[in-house]
Design goal:
alpha/beta; six-stranded mixed beta sheet
Length: 437
């Protein structure tokens, strides 16, 4: 309780737990109220020359309108005029205006999704990440086309050798033996050529005698292509290992709806009312398929997020406080916000009872504090550790510590080279030689 003049009337102010603005312990009583609004309210009390008596709202978060028209929580106390005003800012909505009068806007806010920030772990398929699926498909097509072209050229070369051998049937036996000597190479199969082409692609060197200028030219083009591909691949893979990328489960509500991650909408929040009243087919209506049983325990929700139990639909400023809290506690940044918010441009204001006599005076004081930057200064000071973490997790953000490679990062590569090594006839040889004669 804050008292300035015992003869002046006391304004009863209701509080709800919404850090960093107001926070308190419900048990044991009396409540230990704290937060940046506990620095603003004494200024108002002093300017109005009144005392203020703080009280805790029922444990229903901000409260919501029931079917019979009554209200729960802090909004219920305002609508019944059990208190003069709220000390906790809340999001202004068309429904809440029925129960209270709103002050001038104090802060701008958003509504977004908060979830457990993914950690860098070993990736069995990490060796294929340097290229997209389309690029790998094009490489496969090029591999088949090159092997087919080499097979056709080699087949035509074998056919020419056969024709030449028959045209010299009247020659001496020694010359004929020289001409017909390459015939034992005529049966080069498509599988052998494909094996050589694939071996060059993965850096192996299977044995294959390249015959004829056209065949050697085709092979040279393929070797040059695979050289460029391997250089680009190694460069991209090295960059990914040096600066690994986070793969976020979702970055918007639409992407979230394509996952199987559960969602929590805090009971009594503005989003809870919109979520329940959403028309069929809308995005918020589809969110119901992911919903878990709602509750209003924001502290429990925060720890559940870090365990990956569900994502939470939260205000951006409330999420800022969660990030600040976890960094202060653990020196880590376990949470991230979806980059594209559900709603933006929402405002936070304190609530008055209908017809509150000091409304205009308090609005003037709050506007002066806001325009002078006092409210922003108090907010930034309360969240001094928030700057250690960014609001939005970037796909290239690795945190303060880079992950060391473990054995799982190499399993995929071992499988590829192990299979290529067994398919290669002579992995230590990568030469082209002319046929005898």
């Amino acid at each position: 309780m804050d008292s300035h003049n015992s003869s002046s009337p006391c304004l009863r102010v209701v509080m709800e737990s919404f850090a960093p603005f107001t926070d308190f312990t419900r048990k044991p009583t009396p409540h230990n109220f704290r937060g940046i609004m506990l620095q603003v309210l004494p200024i108002i009390a002093k300017r109005l020359n009144v005392c203020m008596e703080y009280t805790a709202a029922p444990s229903h978060f901000f409260g919501r309108r029931l079917e019979n028209g009554t209200w729960t929580g802090m909004l219920g106390m305002l609508s019944r005029k059990e208190v003069a005003m709220s000390g906790t800012p809340m999001t202004v909505s068309d429904e809440r205006i029925i129960a209270m009068d709103a002050s001038v806007p104090l802060f701008m806010d958003i509504q977004t999704l908060v979830y457990n920030r993914p950690r860098l772990e070993s990736d069995l398929l990490g060796f294929v990440r340097p290229f997209t699926l389309l690029v790998w498909v094009l490489f496969g097509v090029a591999l088949v086309v090159m092997a087919g072209a080499a097979f056709l050229i080699d087949s035509q070369y074998s056919r020419l050798l056969s024709l030449r051998s028959y045209s010299f049937s009247s020659t001496s036996s020694s010359v004929k033996a020289i001409i017909e000597q390459p015939r034992h190479h005529n049966n080069v199969s498509l599988a052998d050529i494909f094996q050589w082409t694939f071996g060059i692609f993965v850096g192996q060197c299977p044995k294959w005698r390249l015959r004829g200028f056209a065949t050697r030219l085709t092979a040279a083009v393929w070797i040059f292509m695979t050289l460029i591909i391997s250089i680009v691949y190694r460069s991209n893979l090295k960059a990914m290992l040096i600066s690994p990328k986070l793969r976020l489960p979702f970055d918007s509500l639409e992407e979230f709806l394509q996952t199987d991650i559960p969602a929590l909408v805090l009971e009594g929040s503005m989003m809870h009312r919109l979520y329940l009243a959403a028309p069929p087919g809308s995005v918020l209506y589809r969110l119901r398929k992911h919903a878990v049983e709602p509750h209003h325990d924001s502290v429990r929700a925060l720890f559940d997020i870090t365990k990956g139990l569900y994502a939470v639909v939260s205000s951006g400023l409330g999420g800022d406080n969660a990030i600040n809290y976890f960094y202060s506690l653990t020196k880590t940044c376990p949470l991230y916000f979806a980059r594209r918010p559900i709603f933006s441009g929402t405002t936070l204001s304190i609530g008055y009872t209908k017809g509150f006599v000091h409304r205009a005076q308090i609005d003037t004081i709050l506007q002066q504090l806001r325009d002078a930057g006092i409210l922003s200064h108090l907010y930034n000071h309360a969240l001094s550790n928030f700057t250690k973490c960014t609001r939005y997790a970037s796909v290239s953000d690795t945190g303060d510590v880079r992950r060391a490679l473990d054995l799982g990062d190499f399993f995929g590569v071992f499988c590829v080279y192990g299979g290529a090594g067994r398919a290669a006839k002579r992995p230590d040889t990568c030469r082209s030689s002319r046929p005898p004669g």
